[in-house]
Every structure is written in C-alpha cells, then in structure tokens.
Amino acid sequence: MTMAMAGLLYLGLFALAAAMQRHRKALAGPWHGPTWAPLLAPGGWTLLGLSLLLVAARWDNGLALVSWVGLLTVAGALVLMGLTYRPHWLSRGLIAAVVIVILGLILPR
C-alpha cells in the first residue's frame, strides 16, 4: 500500500507542477494540449487526496498521516530536484509511478 501511495503522490505533484505556467516549458508533453491542460491542477489535487484516503483506509490514522507527510516530502523532493536538474527524467518517471501504483494495489502487504 505504501508503494501505491508513493506513486500517487508523485503523479499528483507532477500534475500540479505541469499545471504551473513557469514549469510548462520544462515539462513539455502531450498533457499541455487543450483537452488535458485544464485538468492538470484538479487532477493533481485529486491524486494527492486519493493517496491520503488510500493510506488512511489501511493504517491507523496517526501512523497514516505521518507516513503520508513523510512520503509527500520525498515525492516533492524528487519532483523539485527533477525540475531543477533533469526535467526530461520526470516524464519518464510517470511510467514508473503508474507501474508502482498498480503493483502497490495488486501485491499483498
């Protein structure tokens, strides 16, 4: 379940970064088309909320919140460092994040 939460956090933070005007040039991709661009920010917040709900449903509330905030920091640092040094790696990380979410939901604890 932690894997799925980490993947959702990465996807959500990537969507929020891609929705910002200042990061649009660095994160160029098909998601900046007229159909996807308006959905980036709401989709990012939804993914962050889903990750919190996912972990809150499985763990004790105190432990869930602490682990969520900790992984939020790690995912935020990954996105921040990727935006700073290697922006093209972030879009490659999307595929890895989707695989991590799927594996985290399928594999037993």
Characterise this structure:
With 109 residues, this protein is an all-alpha fold. 75% of the residues lie in helices and 0% in strands. It has four helices and no strands. It has helices spanning 2-19, 40-58, 61-85, 87-106. Helix 1 runs antiparallel to helix 4 (87-106) and helix 2 (40-58) packs antiparallel against helix 3 (61-85). The termini are close together.
Annotation keywords:
single chain, 109 residues, mainly alpha, 4 helices, elongated
Helical percent range?
A: over 70%
Beta-strand residue percentage: under 5%
Distance between the termini: 7 Å
Number of helices: 4
Radius of gyration: 14 Å
Strands, count: 0
Low-confidence parts, pLDDT < 50 over ≥5 residues? none
Helix/strand-derived class? mainly alpha
String of helices and strands? HHHH
Mean pLDDT: 85
Shape: elongated
Query: Describe the biggest sheet?
Result: none
Q: Could you write a compact summary of the structure shown?
A:
This protein is mostly helical. It is built from four helices and no strands.
